[in-house]
Design brief:
The protein has about 200 residues and is an alpha/beta fold. Helix content is about 25%, strand content about 20%. The longest helix has 16 residues.
Length: about 200
């Protein structure tokens, strides 16, 4: 179900509204959504053809990515998780992720792989980057948490259609009619929710 957001509201108000909505989902609703998302991802040509896939661990009511990660491992795919860059503020590194990867909380309290330069995958070597988002609209515009991490990660895709293909993952309740966009926002070519696979 699409979230109702009044026209003319600020990006910050949309963030607050949608984050509150998705955090209110019950455990059973979250579990059903995760399984429905997995079913859609399993028939995605983009994911079936990809070998190196960046994902993220769930936080703040986001759609649970754990079933998807386990399926990708079983399918022989290489999975990577974002790590806050220690020297370049606002940027991400992507490290290989397996069941025995050492983890530690970052400054936002989100678990990430312990930095090991040997496990870093250059962004250009990724096939797909599955991006978290707070809200999205009918044209593929994405509203994130405001840090710009994924906008920077996907800048080459945004300007030149080069690099890994981004796919947004979201609950259905995170869709709004339209988003106020900025010049640095990266519209996504695909967004997968439990009930739809949007392509632009």
């Amino acid at each position: 179900m699409r979230a109702t957001v009044p026209a003319g509201v600020t990006r910050q108000h949309i963030r607050q509204t949608i984050r509150k909505t998705r955090r209110a989902l019950s455990t059973s609703e979250q579990n059903r959504a995760a399984q429905a998302l997995l079913a859609r991802c399993q028939v995605s040509d983009t994911l079936k053809q990809a070998h190196h896939i960046a994902l993220y661990l769930t936080n703040d009511g986001e759609l649970d990515t754990e079933p998807l990660i386990h399926w990708l491992w079983q399918a022989g795919k290489h999975v990577y998780l974002p790590v806050l860059h220690p020297f370049s503020k606002g940027h991400l590194l992507f490290l290989g992720y397996s069941p025995n990867t050492p983890m530690a909380p970052n400054r936002f309290g989100i678990a990430e792989p312990v930095l090991d330069i040997r496990r870093v995958c250059p962004i250009a070597n990724l096939d797909v980057v599955c991006t978290p988002l707070v809200a999205f609209d009918a044209t593929g515009h994405r509203l994130g948490m405001g840090g710009g991490y994924y906008d920077r990660t996907l800048s080459r895709w945004h300007h030149h259609r080069e690099g890994p293909r981004p796919i947004g993952l979201a609950h259905d309740c995170q869709q709004v009619a339209s988003l106020p966009s900025q010049s640095w926002d990266v519209p996504l070519p695909e967004i997968i929710t439990p009930s739809h696979h949007y392509r632009w």
